[in-house]
Design goal:
alpha+beta
């Protein structure tokens, strides 16, 4: 079994090992599932109903780009959602480290995960660098994970819920208490790309500006965003491997074909 800490360990819910010194009040705690023999995270919440809803959302929306929900436990004085651990690096730790091609591929993957959620009327509402993980060595399609669906909802009409998310990644219409739709998540994607210090690429700069448009009707749809991103994600001819964080080659031709005819 892989050790998760050199410290003494404690067992939670009869199967999850975590460091004995771990703060049990923490919202997210790394652990090891001794039955499944895999690394997991335990998300603790005071609102059991909200945590249970996140569990149901993840179980109903399984996708390679989303964390897998494994269990939901109430006991030991705790309420925990157990998810696979997104072993990787958050985008927030890679400011300025990604070139245009890699950053565009990350954006393509996030856009496809958002489109998957939006098709069933679910909106993430908290797209930001801390919630996008890059997984070096993962198979194509699994190299980017969009995590933390605790603010996700099936639909939000005007005035039905208070603004949620993290500034400056919250869309203007959300702050105004208006109806939330797919465009709000794409604003978060655009703001995320802008926060990473995108390299000087005119096409990329124009796309980020469009994603961050004040008017949600002016923002690109998923097909429009993907069709703009894929050409940027194709490395320049003759470019060396450089510092590659994501696996290559990505199936960019298949991605473009998938979205070529979409409205």
């Amino acid at each position: 079994m892989t050790a998760i800490s050199s410290e003494p360990l404690r067992l939670v819910h009869g199967r999850y090992l975590m460091a004995a010194g771990a703060d049990l009040r923490a919202r997210v705690t790394a652990a090891f599932d001794v039955r499944r023999r895999r690394h997991v995270v335990l998300k603790r919440g005071a609102d059991a109903a909200a945590l249970a809803e996140e569990f149901r959302l993840l179980r109903a929306h399984e996708h390679a780009g989303l964390p897998q929900a494994l269990d939901f436990h109430v006991g030991d004085g705790r309420c925990d959602l157990v998810e696979e651990r997104a072993l990787g690096t958050p985008l927030s730790a890679l400011h300025g480290a990604l070139g245009p091609a890699e950053l565009a591929l990350v954006a393509v993957r996030v856009a496809e995960v958002l489109a998957f959620l939006h098709r069933t009327g679910v909106f993430h509402r908290d797209v930001k660098p801390d919630h996008v993980f890059l997984r070096a060595g993962a198979s194509p399609g699994e190299e980017v994970k969009l995590v933390d669906l605790d603010l996700a909802v099936r639909a939000v009409v005007a005035g039905a819920a208070p603004p949620a998310g993290t500034e400056p990644f919250i869309a203007p219409e959300v702050l105004a208490g208006e109806e939330v739709g797919p465009a709000a998540d794409f604003f978060g994607l655009g703001a995320t790309l802008a926060a990473l210090g995108p390299p000087p690429d005119p096409a990329f700069t124009a796309l980020i500006a469009a994603l961050c448009a004040q008017d949600p009707r002016a923002r690109p749809t998923t097909p429009e965003a993907v069709r703009a991103l894929v050409p940027i994600a194709i490395p320049e001819p003759g470019a060396g491997p450089g510092r590659s964080i994501l696996p290559r080659p990505a199936p960019l031709a298949a991605i473009m074909e998938r979205w070529a005819a979409a409205a």
